[in-house]
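Input sequence (532 aa), recorded before submission:
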Amino acid sequence: MVWTLRCDDICETLGPSASGSGLLAGFAALAVAELVSAAVRPQAGPLTAVGGATIDRTPTPVKDWAIRHFGEDDKLVLQLGILAALAALAIVLGVVALRFRRAGAAGVLVFGVIGAAAALTRPDSSGFTDALPSVVGAVVAAGLLYYLIGRLTQPPRAGRTTADPDRGAGWDRRGFVIGASAAAVASLGVGALGRYLTGNASQAAVESRNAVRLPAPASPAPPLPSGTQLEVPGISRFTTSNKAFYRVDTALVVPKVDADTWRLRIHGKGVTRPVTLTFEDLMRRELIERDITLTCVSNEVGGPYVGNARWLGVRLADVLAEAGVRPPSKGGPADQLVARSVDGMTLGSPVEAAMDGRDAMLAVGMNGQPLPFIHGFPVRMIIPGLYGYVSACKWIEDIELTTFGDYDPYWVKRSWARRAPIKTQSRIDVPKPLSRSKAGTVMVAGVAWAQHRGIDRVQVRVDDGPWRDADLATEANIDTWRQWSFPWEATPGSHTLTVRATERGGQVQTEKRTGTVPDGASGWPSVVVTID
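Predicted structure, token format:
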């Protein structure tokens, strides 16, 4: 009997197996890349590199949309999206390989090249070795796909029919099943080993953080005055816990830096004595402790990306002065301080703000603990009164003195403002939007902030009624937010509650509604509630 099987019949019969072959090859590629990146560095893995490149090239409005809708899960959503796209492409390549075996395998290699290019063009790339995870993973995946498709397209031996139980409809069923099973098991093992080695590589950083004992500050923060925290159910705590503190950054893999090997280099225009500091150098200096509120420029009106903590660190102005830096007001040639993170992020801050007497610092502690890894361990920069994207560099390792005219940092290249003082803002914490309450006294409460200027007044309006003064909590200092409350005699029906704040000096929070780009959102926050 002569064995014949048309190509269309083959695709219809073996299509699912070909699709599975593509998925298995893709899984093998990621598993092998995981193992190789453990030897190179975790950030060089294709998922992280492509994800980082995607973030870099994503239009600002799309980034804002992702932060607004997914919050701190935006990176997880991105990674899941990349995995879904890779899975779809792997299925397509498997089906293509069924008709064009070499072309399908070559397609896998192309995606390896894309992953390698993404790794090599990342700001924190350490050189050609960053391409190895993607390249090695792609080569293994291409070879596996070529082999599995070969088992699918191999015709029966002479004397066998298409009904042979070991050969199925003209393909090497036994060889395919054995090969696919072995590849799946091997990929699982390789991936697990890669994860294990990556975990071991970061263990030194974990141990270095565990070994940190924060010294007592030479200039401790004063005790919080009585009345700073209002006892209103649902209002934000005056001091935000480390766990609850917001996180907005572009790092898909949180850098885990060993404090023992960390270095900070200070150089550039006007630096007469270049400085390189170790973590121990900072810990031996006089430390200051301050309550400071941080705000993200991506925070929408009434949004959650603001928090207050007690920070411990070294005065940034002192470190800069020791390097010979002078602010522009005193004849210094540099007006921009460019801070660089270990993950390649760049932030540009006004030199004047870093040295004008405010409590700008290189922070090593947060709420009595060493900085958590997600908040910048071992060292981050903080300059009160400026949005985080120009002042709060996490995992900092380099400070270069330059000018705003000579260099545009990461976010400025993406249409954000060069200088970004925090706008006066307020927020209603309770009642929650669309909540229901009973008629009678309903406590309206929240927070307001105008960092480095202070809040003098908060007013609440019900529907289109008159503005009424809220009760203010005791002020801790001008660099922190301030709580407020307003006892509202609520009547049945649907009502709109609106709040506005007035900063020290009399400037009232603007009603004009703007988005976050280029220098922070503005407008009056409001909530709609129902009273029964």
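Checked by second reader. Residues 94 and 504 are 65 Å apart (CA to CA).
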